[in-house]
């Protein structure tokens, strides 16, 4: 087993080198890196932020203009006949967005790039909201109906936009499945880690990872995941509808309580974020580019705007116009980064462990331990309060990982449907997912940490970005037509004629609307 873990670590380490090259290119070239200001912006950052800026202006700041509208859509309790509701789709996508990365990613970004990294997360999230609107609207435009459910997303609009190329749809479906398989081990690892941490806090005993508790938890996790995922997307959404609001509320209230207890440190938080966005402290290397790249990279890993990985639930929603769900999904980026990630930033920056005598020891800790140590700095030495906080954080961390795992399972199934809708194929994909999840759990039980494995998601993310963003530009004219029709608000249904693209689903909905009107 040790030999297997070592081999996986070695492979991951090599992939990490490639991943870093793609993320840093062309800043890693001397001639480009020496260019003032521009030399700090990699191609990936220019593409991600540049696309968000472009869409923001072309769509007249849609993320601001339709913010309240998106909230109103979420408040509606509409009955759905085929797809899922806007709220359910929002919660399913939030299950994916709000994951362990909201704690680990933000903590890691700040510990490497300094507090200023959070500022660049905000910037990327603001413009990323427009990108999310565009890709989610495009996903709705190109959705298909199968077995009384709507399916769509990146593989589906890729096929539609590339001259109905079946090969393009299959290729991007396979890419997403590989992306998910690379991320599953970490979610399994994190879920079981949280179970052990919770049990340890309750019992007051440090429980070994190879104990019966971990093995039983492993079995329960796989069984529960199998039962839910084999029930299809509607079964998954029944779970995420209940868990996502609970975990979000627990985390928000926990951090707010810590913040209120340290209200005198709030000025430190804001001054650190804004002053170090352009000039990080020497302890973080003092490099503007590092704060920038960490903020953009971790912001993407958290809210996934521009990746195309959150487009599947957007397509599954049953709405009266494609832009409705586009507005809702843009709101998801706001919740994930501007709210949840900022709360994590509050804890880490207000704790400012790098300014204490324990700074060197803090930098050596793992990301979760860094966050918990920052929590400890805000509890004023109260051991009871610290125990309660770490218990609540562990519960949230476990729920973040579990719901993220369920989201990956359902999205992987949607992509598998693009390849083949045969039950045997779909079930084979589900089983493969469970096997890969098991690998992550067993890694934890064996007491191993696959180090570079966590960096694989960076590589998977950048691959998805380079595949998805060109499609966004190809399909933007259809998004623009849909948006103009939506803004006109003249009561006419959205159809193929308006989009300039053959859309059987929307034509059928328009026909139903017409028949209902005449009756």
From TrEMBL:
Gene3D superfamilies, sorted: Amino acid/polyamine transporter I
Compartment list: Cell membrane
Residues in the signal sequence: none
A single Gene Ontology CC term: plasma membrane
UniProt keyword annotations, A-Z: Cell membrane, Membrane, Symport, Transmembrane, Transmembrane helix, Transport
GO molecular function annotations of the record: amino acid:sodium symporter activity
Principal place of residence: membrane
Topology of the protein relative to the lipid bilayer: Multi-pass membrane protein
Chain segments annotated as transmembrane: 41-61, 213-231, 243-263, 333-355, 384-408, 428-447, 459-480
PANTHER family xrefs: AGSS FAMILY TRANSPORTER, SODIUM-ALANINE (PTHR30330), AMINO-ACID CARRIER PROTEIN ALST (PTHR30330:SF1)
Family: Belongs to the alanine or glycine:cation symporter (AGCS) (TC 2.A.25) family.
Name this polypeptide is given: Amino acid carrier protein
Source organism: Phascolarctobacterium succinatutens YIT 12067
């Amino acid at each position: 087993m040790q030999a297997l873990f070592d081999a996986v670590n070695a492979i991951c380490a090599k992939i990490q080198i490639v991943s870093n090259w793609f993320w840093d290119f062309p800043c890693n070239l001397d001639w480009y890196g020496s260019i003032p200001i521009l030399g700090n912006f990699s191609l990936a950052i220019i593409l991600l932020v540049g696309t968000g800026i472009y869409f923001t202006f072309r769509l007249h700041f849609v993320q601001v203009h339709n913010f309240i509208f998106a909230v109103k859509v979420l408040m509606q309790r509409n009955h759905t006949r085929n797809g899922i509701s806007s709220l359910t789709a929002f919660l399913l996508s939030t299950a994916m967005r709000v994951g362990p990365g909201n704690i680990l990613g933000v903590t890691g970004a700040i510990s490497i790039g300094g507090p200023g990294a959070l500022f660049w997360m905000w910037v990327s999230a603001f413009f990323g909201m427009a990108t999310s609107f565009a890709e989610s609207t495009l996903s709705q435009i190109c959705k298909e109906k199968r077995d009384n459910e709507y399916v769509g997303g990146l593989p589906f609009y890729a096929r539609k936009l590339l001259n109905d190329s079946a090969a393009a749809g299959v290729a991007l479906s396979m890419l997403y499945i590989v992306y998910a398989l690379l991320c599953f081990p970490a979610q399994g690892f994190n879920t079981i880690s949280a179970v052990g941490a919770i049990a340890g806090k309750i019992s007051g005993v440090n429980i070994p990872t190879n104990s019966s508790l971990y093995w039983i938890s492993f079995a329960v996790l796989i069984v529960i995941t199998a039962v839910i995922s084999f029930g299809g997307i509607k079964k998954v959404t029944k779970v995420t509808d209940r868990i996502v609001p609970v975990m979000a509320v627990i985390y928000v209230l926990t951090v707010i309580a810590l913040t209120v207890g340290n209200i005198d440190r709030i000025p430190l938080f804001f001054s650190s974020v804004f002053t170090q966005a352009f000039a990080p402290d020497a302890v973080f290397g003092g490099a503007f580019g590092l704060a920038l790249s960490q903020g953009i990279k971790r912001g993407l890993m958290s809210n996934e705007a521009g990746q195309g990985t959150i487009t599947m639930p957007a397509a599954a929603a049953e709405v009266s116009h494609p832009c409705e769900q586009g507005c809702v999904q843009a709101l998801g980026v706001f919740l994930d980064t501007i709210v949840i990630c900022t709360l994590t930033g509050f804890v880490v920056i207000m704790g400012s462990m790098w300014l204490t005598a324990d700074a060197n020891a803090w930098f050596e800790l793992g990301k979760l331990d860094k966050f918990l140590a920052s929590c400890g700095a805000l509890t004023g030495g109260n051991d009871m309060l610290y125990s309660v906080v770490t218990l609540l954080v562990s519960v949230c961390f476990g729920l973040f990982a579990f719901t993220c795992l369920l989201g990956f399972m359902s999205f992987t199934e949607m992509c598998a449907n693009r390849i083949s809708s045969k039950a045997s194929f779909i079930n084979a994909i589900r089983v493969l997912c469970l096997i890969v999840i098991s690998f992550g759990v067993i890694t934890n039980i064996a007491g191993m940490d696959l180090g570079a494995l966590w960096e694989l998601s960076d590589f998977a993310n950048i691959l998805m970005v380079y595949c998805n963003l060109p499609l966004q530009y190809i399909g933007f004219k259809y998004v623009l037509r849909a948006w103009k029709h939506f803004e006109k608000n003249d009561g006419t249904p959205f159809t193929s004629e308006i989009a300039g693209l053959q859309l059987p689903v929307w034509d059928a909905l328009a026909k139903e609307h017409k028949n209902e009107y005449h009756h």
